[in-house]
Fold this sequence. Notes:
CATH topology of the largest domain: TIM Barrel
Number of strands: 17
Strand content: 15-25%
CATH superfamily of the largest domain: Alanine racemase
Order of helices and strands: HEHEHEHEHEEHEHEHEHEEHEEEEEEH
Structural class: alpha/beta
Shape: globular
Radius of gyration: 23 Å
Amino acid sequence: MLDALAAYQRGFAGRNARICYAMKANSSLAILQLFAKAGCGFDIVSGGELARVLAAGAQADKVIFSGVGKTRAEMAVALKAGIGCFNVESEAEIDVLNEVALGLNLQAPISIRVNPNVDPKTHPYISTGLKGNKFGIAHERTLMTYQRAAALQGLKVVGIDCHIGSQITEETPYLDAMDRMLDLVESIEAAGIPIHHIDFGGGLGINYNGDTPPAADALWHKVLVKLDARGFGQRQLMIEPGRSLVGNAGVCVTEVLYMKPGEQKNFCIVDAAMNDLPRPAMYQAFHTIVPLQYSPAQPSTEVFDVVGPVCESGDWIGHDRALAVKAGDRLAVLSAGAYCMSMSSNYNSRPKAAEILADGTNSHLIRQRDEFADQIRGEKLL
Length: 382
């Protein structure tokens, strides 16, 4: 994780830039603490995430509050905590945030999230910058929305924001979105509204299955060259990486329970399931799966679907994998650091897995495995 962070730090060396970890990727307290100690800010999307990141030792003024559905209560808590910036995502939200801030006799620092209508060329469920997506203000309405926000006493315009998607593996969408963003900054400032920071969001992908995303330092070097050429190189810059910081740092270790041959499919049934590793079921995502007991003397000749115990046909970890394993062997599901533990659940009343952080030869238990009492805490019989 820190090596991945270092690539971003190299890319922004000598610049007025803030790296805000998108904690939705993995919100475990120890992970947040690690990034806070490394000087990161944070991108959050709920009051719960704000509480988590503050509990991990982060500074509220280095936190960006994104998301299309902020409640009045969440806004109030964030304002009282001294939030760094709200990324506002609709004109209706502008009015509500203004009311909440005035009611507290405070001023809310805001940037407006722009939908630049740029195709990130990723899975449609994680594309966020096209006209058909629910996120942000339409590019064509951005200037009038800034003018409206700047006239409200409870708001203080401080920046502009966009986030076009996740698991992006090409540089072109970033460069296209940046050009559209800078065009907007020019028009907004021409109308007399200063923009102090430019937030380019996150979304840089990782290698799951031969993917070749650009290296973070190389990508941001190209972005900065264009920024300099257009005269914006000295602005405060913000980015919101998540997956690219933690994705390839995580491994899900699972035990083979049964080998089940079939007429059309062979199944390798493991003790991990869609509640532990939801990405394959949700996004048809690929994760490399390797035996921990791999032996070159046992070539992988049979092909299996690797599936979990949950009562859903969609409960699969990998399709058509060549594996030489038997019951009792353990498998490692790679690239499981992002959008796995943070999206896990107790479906089928299954306990959430333990989480262990490895640091060289040292290891730390940073999340205990659920007990049954954890699952029913807060529930009552009639």
